[in-house]
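Progress narrative, work stream C.
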Amino acid sequence: MTERKANSLDGDDETTRLVRLAESRARRWRAVALATSGIAACLLIIVAAAVAYFSGSQPEVISRRSEQPLIYSALFTPEGGERPAMLLTIFAETKYVSVQPFGVDIPEGHALELWRVPQEGPPQSLGLIGLARPFTTTKADFKLSDTLAVSVEPPGGSPTGAPTGQIFLNGPLVEAR
């Protein structure tokens, strides 16, 4: 600054005060602009990293969906009945069977036995089922062409290895993805 301007700014006149106030405000606005620019740059880096991360992981998500375990379901309806009575969900890989009854009662002194009925060959017992708990069966490999059935049997199950009691629920096995 020239000496004359410096001398005039050292005084207490109104112009000097306004110039100093303007410089002070300009410094504040420069600091705010610098901080805002820094925040914007950080957000831009975060957004770019998120886009790169999520766009890179999409094929993995798609491949995980295609590798989901096979799940079968059978909706059992009573013969001549008007409403479903039981839904079975079977996880083919683990053979875990979930039983969801709808108004089914086990007759006193009897048990309910689940059967796999293939298109060819005799029925295969999958075990006794309870209405309140899932179970795992290791006795069968399920196929979409199978029908599942529930029969009323003596307390320990069928003594012959084939259904001896009334088959009161049955339904086709379908894939449930």
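Work stream C, second folded protein:
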Amino acid sequence: MAMPDPRPRLADLWEALALLSRLPVPDHAPRGAASAWAWPLAGAAVAAMAAACGSLGAALGFGAGVNAAIILIAQAMATGALHEDGLADTADGLWGGRTRARRLEIMKDSRIGSYGVLALLLITLIRWSALTGLVAASAHWPALIAAGALSRVPMAALMAALPNARGTGLSQSVGRPTGATVGLGAALALALALAVGGLMVLAMALVMALTAAALGLIARARIGGQTGDILGASQQLAEAAALAVASATL
């Protein structure tokens, strides 16, 4: 099978949105992992939509906590809770099984266990708490867009760095991006984040990178690589870490 041309194309933006969101996009030719450079742009688009929903709530007179919840709801609806599902399955699988095979089996199971519930509750609580402070300070737009773009970089990075642990599934079908593709996406994400958030985003990026690296090491040790669930979990953990850092700078 011929490998797709790794050079970026404008249609990769539609591919990124089609893969990482439920937003309608024009017809396009899928290129799999070759479009991973555009994932941060898709994340920024979802984040901007959610930020607009939060600002609308503020204009209607809702409090900061309610608007933070509105932002989280808007993000989940725009992505189909794809990343949240990955977080729950990752927590259940990595900590609920005693063998590699059993962990992968648990991660494939659509049912959610106690580890998954706790992971969703705790990470959502961190995101909501951070967003509440950011919304109250009218600083949610830059923080959300920066976090939305940067948090999609670990997905591509882990995909390139680790083998697919299962050999099947969404991650396997998409393929593995090249280092150049990951690097381009990271550079675009950082440039966009710096443009909207200033030097604050450097601390966000550092904490996110450390968080993703830790997840990658755990995944390699416990299941031998990455899966689509691991990638989704990396986005959720990275975003929570980024928002926490952003709120700490207020």
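The two ends are 51 Å apart (CA to CA). No further action is required on this item.
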